[in-house]
Design goal:
Layout lengths: L9 H4 L6 H18 L3 H18 L4 H15 L1 H19 L4 H18 L2 H18 L3 H20 L3 H17 L7 H15 L3 H19 L6 H14 L3 H17 L5 H17 L3 H15 L8 H15 L3 H19 L3 H16 L3 H18 L7 H14 L3 H15 L7 H16 L7 H16 L8 H21 L2
Helix pairs in contact: 2-3, 3-4, 4-5, 5-6, 6-7, 7-8, 8-9, 8-10, 9-10, 10-11, 11-12, 12-13, 12-14, 12-23, 13-14, 14-15, 14-16, 15-16, 16-17, 16-18, 17-18, 18-19, 18-20, 19-20, 20-21, 20-24, 21-22, 22-23, 23-24
């Protein structure tokens, strides 16, 4: 979806008839847009490359917009090549228009955005992208350009959230949406990108009503400009479906997820990241409704698809974890262990000291507990806890994941005093997150832990009640994209605490 900022309204940039070469470029770019609307990305990319070749040789004024279209197509499938194309686009803009032109500033901003995303260096992105955005703002001269400025600001707001700068993100996002709404009718699909970015952030901030409203606006704008099979729609439909689940309307969610998967399947070659997430969304929906036989093949297909992605992506680990969970639901503990071991190997091959690796160790502990092997569970829980204490600073609330898992292992081993102390520590760690129900659930866990510590039978009903309050949200968030790290972390900790509450309430 971030690729929408790369798109330009080609008709608005087209120049009056300048000869046969220009007409050929126009025709090829129109073909590219038509092929893209029906999901034929490989053919659209090939046609666009021909347009670039002709523009370079015989129609230089068309080079910028030809490269721009190629960027749009490469951004989701080949970001490394896309960065090289962006460099060419910057050079073309400077040669054709000069440094003091909106198009040059726009190309520089796109380069900063994707360079930061490809490298995973969010700090670099937050240093460089605002510079280009400031120039875009200063040089914008038309409503279409102002819309692109607002879209870039909305995307920047999402990256601010990743850096933990929520207050700045709220200001940037509200300003971007206000700017778009002041324009009245949207000028392009860029407005949809801004609304979807807003929907993502509002969901994380707990404003589900406005999040759904913005998600539906994004859907309508994409359908208007790109058609009902736009390759951007799977992400938007998945987001709206999750909101419907969160707000107690699962019957409305399923057709959206089925449609999202049909569109993602039709894109050729597939936008693998979107396809994996769409498979996981529908699988998580069925898993949450107690239909693991429907969920498991979707998760298995997500694993197969994600295995074809670049080594730097963590979608393969996510898919393997989802598959392991579905195997547990089906009672296939050995298969769950195999899937989780594959996730550990994948994570360690990328970065054995990453937060993702730690989370996979904790899931391995959960699977071992399901298999009744407390010794193995203790080993995995200790690995996760040691890793978190090494890579996360003191006071980081994400340490609560490992503490809660260690508490559950201690309880299974019969060490009630250790379990009480660890649950107290986990409860203390989760409160600074400030997420909905965090204080309530922490208080419930702490009260039960205090009962354990005093040698009294714990009353787990408050903890279970608090856990129930999170269940709908938990189910809908189970397959969040890797970029939404804070919410993924929240899911994992609530998973641990809810598992604890339900396990003990049943005893």
């Amino acid at each position: 979806m971030l690729a929408a900022i790369v798109s330009v309204a080609l008709a608005l940039q087209a120049v009056p008839d300048r000869g046969p070469a220009a007409r050929e470029v126009d025709s090829l770019l129109e073909q590219s847009q038509a092929l893209g609307r029906v999901g034929k990305l490989a053919e659209a990319t090939e046609v666009t490359r021909r347009a670039v070749t002709i523009a370079e040789a015989r129609s230089r004024p068309d080079l910028y917009r030809s490269l721009d279209r190629l960027n749009d197509l490469l951004s989701a499938s080949d970001p490394d090549t896309m960065l090289l194309v962006t460099d060419r686009m910057i050079a073309a803009a400077r040669q054709l228009y000069g440094d003091e032109d909106f198009r040059t500033a726009r190309a520089v901003t796109i380069r900063a955005l994707f360079a930061g995303m490809v490298s995973g260096d969010n700090a670099r992105l937050l240093r460089e992208m605002p510079v280009g955005l400031a120039d875009m703002t200063r040089l914008a001269r038309s409503p279409e350009q102002a819309e692109e400025v607002a879209t870039a600001a909305a995307i920047l707001a999402k990256r601010l959230v990743v850096a933990g700068r929520d207050a700045e993100a709220r200001t940037a996002m509200s300003g971007a949406i206000a700017a778009i709404e002041r324009m009245g009718e949207p000028r392009s699909a860029n407005a949809a990108t801004a609304y979807q970015a807003s929907a993502d952030l509002l969901t994380g901030w707990g404003d589900y009503r406005l999040a759904e409203e913005h998600g539906l606006r994004a859907l309508a704008i994409y359908e208007r400009f790109d058609g009902p099979t736009s390759m951007e729609l799977p992400v938007v439909l998945g987001s709206i479906a999750r909101l419907k689940v969160m707000t107690g309307r699962p019957a409305e969610a399923e057709p959206l997820l089925v449609r999202a998967l049909a569109i993602a399947d039709a894109v050729k070659p597939p936008r693998q990241a979107d396809l994996v997430r769409t498979l996981e969304d529908l699988g998580a929906f069925y898993a949450a409704r107690g239909q693991p036989t429907l969920a498991e093949p979707l998760f298995r297909r997500a694993v197969t698809t994600s295995a074809q992605m670049p080594a730097g992506s963590d979608l393969a680990e996510n898919a393997l974890l989802s598959l392991a969970s579905s195997y547990l639901q089906l009672g296939r503990v050995d298969d769950a262990r195999t899937a989780n071991a594959a996730a550990i190997a994948r994570a360690e091959s990328r970065d054995a000291r990453s937060h993702k690796a730690g989370m996979i160790y904790l899931q391995a502990a959960q699977i071992a507990l399901a298999a009744g092997d407390t010794a193995e569970a203790a080993r995995h829980a200790a690995r996760g806890r040691t890793l978190f204490e090494t890579i996360l600073p003191a006071g980081d609330p994400r340490r609560g994941d490992a503490l809660a898992m260690a508490a559950e292992v201690a309880m299974r081993q019969g060490d009630r005093a250790a379990a009480a102390a660890l649950w107290n520590a986990a409860a203390t760690a989760m409160v600074p997150r400030g997420y909905p129900n965090a204080s309530r659930e922490a208080a419930a866990i702490r009260a039960s832990a205090a009962a354990l510590d005093a040698g009294r039978p714990p009353d787990w009903r408050p903890a279970r009640t608090a856990g129930d309050a999170m269940t709908r949200r938990l189910a809908s968030m189970a397959s969040l994209p890797a970029s939404r790290t804070a919410e993924r972390d929240e899911v994992s900790l609530y998973n641990r605490l809810i598992d604890v509450a339900w396990t003990q309430a049943a005893r």
